[in-house]
Amino acid sequence: xxxxxxxxxxxxxxxxxxxxxxxxxxxxxxxxxxxxxxxxxxxxxxxxxxxxxxxxxxxxxxxxxxxxxxxxxxxxxxxxxxxxxxxxxxxxxxxxxxxxxxxxxxxxxxxxxxxxxxxxxxxxxxxxxxxxxxxxxxxxxxxxxxxxxxxxxxxxxxxxxxxxxxxxxxxxxxxxxxxxxxxxxxxxxxxxxxxxxxxxxxxxxxxxxxxxxxxxxxxxxxxxxxxxxxxxxxxxxxxxxxxxxxxxxxxxxxxxxxxxxxxxxxxxxxxxxxxxxxxxxxxxxxxxxxxxxxx
Length: 295
Ligand code: NAD
Prior knowledge:
By secondary structure, the protein is α/β, with parallel strands linked by helices. The chain has helices at 12-21, 33-40, 50-54, 67-75, 98-110, 123-129, 140-153, 165-193, 198-206, 213-217, 240-257, 262-279, and strands spanning 2-6, 25-29, 45-46, 59-62, 89-92, 114-117, 120-121, 132-137, 154-161.
């Protein structure tokens, strides 16, 4: 299949490479020359613009930072929708506001284009391994159209509901992830302040009632998990500012629905302070620095 892939960052790059490895013809575009060079080195075609990428594409996958990037791309100055052929499938895997997914999907439908939201979970490790979890919002027919492509990038595909529902599921998950990373950081920092070995303590908690995904795969303490961002100077991974965006989306949603999410609100405030302190570009597990004893 001829596929256009737009947004080749920490997640989009490896996802596009997996589609290419599965035998699809992938034409990739990103505003960053570095991101383009990485996928070119893996044998993907690179496009000169988003418009160029979508020419002749049967399906388009986008993996962009936030709502304004997705809305700007499809409906803004570039008005990419006007360059997309009728009948094309668009899979947006960015984590954005459900209302933005619905707005773009409505404009796409009017142009005869299938647009679904399919945000992901599983981190950069899952993107590289092709084991992501997709949370899809759209009709059953649209999901079935997308499934063969999603299966090349992920291991779990859930139909959350109509368009926008994938985004709602995603912000619920990430609100929980943001909270549990702060809690895990607090627990490890407390143990270390008492002289415990972070590896031993992490293993005790992993196998006890505090066990969670951060302790399994993404420990915030350097050196516990060799491949986690914490062991690589908090580089790559899932940026603090992206987590802050997702916690903001969950709080906007909580306000709109009068939901009570006190820990989600507190987590947003903690990541905001961490970002202001200069850690916005580091992986979100660097939030442990907020609770670690210095020196
Ligand atoms: P990233 O910042 O590494 O990559 C985003 C890429 O989009 C960048 O390369 C940027 O140059 C490009 N871009 C921005 N605007 C563009 C445009 N108009 N046209 C073309 N390219 C454009 O971000 P990421 O970590 O890959 O995350 C992407 C999305 O996936 C975000 O919504 C994030 O919340 C979500 N997400 C990330 C992770 C993770 O672990 N990193 C996990 C799940 C979901």
